[in-house]
Every structure is written in C-alpha cells, then in structure tokens.
Amino acid sequence: MSQTRILALVGSLRAASINRQLAEAAVHTAPEGVEIVIYEGLGDIPFYNEDIDVTGSVPAAAQALRDAVVAADGLLVLTPEYNGTLSAVLKNAIDWTSRPYGASALAKTPVAVISASISPNAAQWAHGDAVKALGVAGAKVVESAHLHFGVIGERFASAHPREDVEALTELAGALHELVEAARGELASV
After folding, report:
1. Among 124, 109, 145, residue whose Cα is nearest residue 7
2. Is the distance from CB of 29 to CB of 170 less than 8 angstroms?
3. What does the pLDDT look like over 149-176, one tens digit per residue?
4. Percent of the residues in the chain that have a pLDDT greater than 90, as a whole number
5. What is the Cα–Cα distance from 132 to 127, expressed in whole angstroms?
6. Would the CA dihedral through 120, 15, 82, 179 be positive or negative?
7. Who has the most CB within 10 Å: 67, 88, 112, 177?
8. How does DSSP classify residue 82?
C-alpha cells in the first residue's frame, strides 16, 4: 500500500505550544507507511473574506493551505482553547478550506481532533466547536480518534509529550483510527 499522508493543523501559533509539541509527538509515533506533516503558515493566511476568495486571485497562503489539505489523506487537528472556544487561526483555516461552497477541500476528508489546555476541562469546548465546524464543512470526523489532554502546564512542564509514554500510546491509538479511516476512504474512491 502507498504512503498515507496526514496533515497536522495546529491551532496555536506559539513556537513552544504544547499543541505543537503534541503534533511533533504524533510525527514521532507515526507507524510505518504513514507520513505526518505539520502545516506551517497558518498565521500567514488572511482572515476569510469572500471578496478576496476569487478564482485566479485567491491569496497564495490560503491557496497553499487548500492544496495541502487536498493532497492529504487525512487531517490531524490540534486545538487549544481560547476563551472557551477554538482559536481564530484554526477557525480561519477551516473557513478557507471549506470554500468555495460545493468545492470544499475538506469534503469527505477523515479528521481527528485533539484538544489540549491548561485547564482540567482539556479544551473540550474548543474540541466540540472544532468538530462542529469541520463536520459542517463536510469533513469526515473520526470520533474514535479524538483525544483530550488537560492540565498540560503540569503534565508536560518538564518533558516534551514525546517523552510521555501514556501520551504516545494515546496518540498512536488516535493515529491508528485516523489512518484506518483515511485508508478506508481511499479504498472507496
């Protein structure tokens, strides 16, 4: 079977973000035959505006994201929680990739959502909002691949998530579910 490509979208722009570190740990746990690429450049994409989403003149950063999503077999979305919801950068990425109407780059794309925050709530509100937005956008949300990491400031304060055996095991399980869904989607095409 050919390589399965998973694109990771991290909803935090901060270089030392635990959500980014979880994406890096996911790359570390990728099984053989699976490539996980962390998308760079979400912060360069202008806020979605239908006036600038015009064929032939879509902002290059937005088009690059759309192209990357189309080229991926599945998405791994990592969301922090900002003021009880997902980050603007992640919502903007979902908005750009869900359009133009009827031609969503997200259509039928298997997606796993991982949420992480400093609170014991584990960013579950942001998680729910991400699942909702992705589902409305036409993505195939893989519920069995969801993860929630709470109190990350304590849990990962002294070590990167790739050094946390339990986190790696949970990530590997979520990736397995996502990859199976992606391969199933590929087989049905």
Report:
1. 109
2. no
3. 999 989 998 889 999 999 999 999 999 9
4. 85
5. 9
6. negative
7. 112
8. B
Residues 62/94, Cβ–Cβ less than 8 Å: no
Q: In angstroms, rounded to a whole number, what is the distance separating the alpha carbons of residues 15 and 41?
A: 12
Burial class (CB in 10 A: 0-12, 13-18, 19+), 150: middle
Answer whether 19's CB lies under 8 Å from 49's CB.
no
Q: How many CB atoms within 10 Å of residue 76?
A: 29
pLDDT band at 1 (very low <50, low <70, confident <90, very high): low
Looking up tokens 């990530």, which residue turns up? Answer: 171
CA 54 – CA 137 distance, rounded (Å):
19
Find the length of the chain: 189
Residue found by looking up tokens 């759309």 in the block: 66
Alpha carbon distances (Å) from 23 to 27, 78, 82: 6, 7, 18
Backbone angles phi, psi at 139, to 5 degrees: -70, 155
